Amino acid sequence: MRIRTLFLLLLTSLLSFQTLFAQDRATVKVSGEVTKPLQLSLEDLQKMKPATAVLKDRDGKEHPYTGVAVSDILTLAGVTTGQQLHGENLAKFLLVKCADGYEVLFSLAELDAAFTDKQAILAYQLEGNALPAGKGPFRLVVPGEKRPARSCQQVVEMVIRFAKD
Amino acid sequence: MKHQLAIVIVAIAAVIGLGASGIRRATPLTLVYPANFGNRISIPDDNPMTEEGVQLGRRLFYETRLSANNRVSCATCHQQAKAFTDGLRFSQGVDDTPTPRNAMSLANLLWVRNFFWDGRAKGLEAQASFPLTDPHEMGQSLAVSAQKLQADGRYASLFAQAFGTPQITGQRIVQALAQFERTLISANSKYDQYLRGEYQPTTSELNGLQLFFSNPNAEKNIRGASCGHCHGGPKTFIELFHNNGLDTVPADKGREVITGQSIDRGRFRVATLRNIALTAPYMHDGRFANLEDVVDHYNEHIQPSETLSTFLQGNQGGMGSAMSGRGDLQLGLTTAERKDLLAFLHLLTDSSFIQDKRFSNPFIP
């Protein structure tokens, strides 16, 4: 009985240690049709070229977000962007996954500066501060859309795939 | 030369002949379901659906020898009459230790991708091995289960019919179970009949349906309970993990334990509402004894916390503020509206599903 209690205590402390550790290292995973899979932390994103985007939130007001252009992240991961985005590569999509299981999809061309001036970003700041609980640490901000449903919150993963139909 | 060629031809013919007689191919099975459920289903390439596989899976689902004390089967905690739940807050396994969470209903699993309350198992095959081997549930390794089935002469031929050869392995046990569970499709409730134009709901049921799927909007005078936000679509669930405000400090951290991310604290699977009137008690810990308590929870007992899902937070323009105009966590449904909502929830009961002979215990004639 004592051994079991001890074991449980050890397990609990190990789990909480693991939890603490993981909290410090919230990341966004980039995988699929990439030449270089990524696991980006806040520090990694802050080292990249910053980009801003304005989003009319559910409160009806426009808010400036700061982050990194999604196309820059894709380029870093070796996804076919810019000059390479032609032919069969136009049949690729990006699936963005959030912590609660919510998923939204983009075709690569929708995110590419060669195709559109509306630059979607992976935001880590709102009006100069870290994103509030429930939205962050990372949120997609897609400007120029009537509904904010694709500006999804708590992004944890970006997967690039070929449409297989 | 001609002679050699003839030998080769005879040899090839023999191999083909052997293949045809020695290894019987199982009969492919196509699952039938309503088009409005969509086709985002999960059937792994290495475990295609077959008639024989499903029949074997059904037998295994009710097979008590898959447990350490030969008294517990999957059906002990997943009883057909209760839409494959057991009516208990926590279930009792082979060692009489209660399970940490409430047994989930098994319906329309074909559309589920991440199983359990915390979504830790990808696919039904991976899911099945948890309760089979957990010391507090069925408590027996898959290898021992395979040995015990081997000792019963009848199983070898059933495995051969399902998988081509008579080998009984742990992998084949979970594959057959998964095949059977994929056939548990509930799509003939009165709600489905209504969607097919075969049932006319009562005024109360229709009002409940309206409330269920509507987002409240005080300015436009729209009443709603926003249930469809998570339980939308004909399947009545979206594969999401939410903190639905049960506790400010949850005793069970839910999905956080799996992901290690504090943003997942108190998050649990959005359960299907199919047959919900049959699957009490409710929530991951079975804390609510009846549906009235569940509706009351969403109506007036949402507990605030850091990870409370944003759409439940009144101060973010969620249903609380829109409904009551107070910016709090109250939904503000009237007594009549609660009754209507409950009437709609009862429309989701599929009596043909719980009586379907294809899902019943094959050991009882």
Describe the structure.
The complex is a heterodimer of chains A (165) and B (365). Chain A has three helices and ten strands. With 165 residues, chain A is α+β, with helices and mostly antiparallel strands. Residues 8-23 of chain A have low confidence and may be disordered. Chain B is mainly α. In chain B, strands 1-2 form a two-stranded antiparallel ribbon. The chains are: A alpha+beta (165), B mainly alpha (365). The interface between A and B is medium-sized, with 19 and 24 residues.
Chain-wise SSE layout:
The complex is a heterodimer of chains A (165) and B (365).
Chain A: H1 2-24, E1 27-32, E2 38-41, H2 42-46, E3 50-56, E4 62-69, H3 70-76, E5 92-98, E6 103-107, E7 121-126, E8 129-130, E9 139-141, E10 155-162
Parallel strand pairs in A: 1-10
Antiparallel strand pairs in A: 1-2, 3-4, 4-7, 5-6, 5-10, 7-8, 7-9
Chain B: H1 2-22, H2 51-61, H3 74-77, E1 114-115, E2 121-122, H4 124-133, H5 142-151, H6 153-163, H7 170-182, H8 190-195, H9 203-213, H10 228-231, E3 241-242, H11 256-259, E4 268-269, H12 291-300, H13 319-324, H14 335-346, H15 351-355
Antiparallel strand pairs in B: 1-2, 3-4
Mean pLDDT value of chain B: 90
* Largest sheet strand order of chain A: 2-1-10-5-6
Radius of gyration of chain A: 18 Å
Oligomeric state, counting identical vs distinct chains: heterodimer
Widest sheet: strand ordering of chain B:
1-2
Number of helices of chain A: 3
Order of helices and strands of chain A: HEEHEEHEEEEEE
Percent range for β-strand residues of chain A: 25-35%
> Would you identify the CATH architecture of chain A?
Alpha-Beta Complex
Radius of gyration of chain B: 24 Å
Total individual domains of chain B: 2
Instruction: State the total count of DSSP E strands of chain A.
Output: 10
Fold-level CATH name of chain A: Sulfite Oxidase, Chain A, domain 2
- State the shape of chain B: globular
The CATH superfamily name of the largest domain in chain B is Cytochrome c-like domain
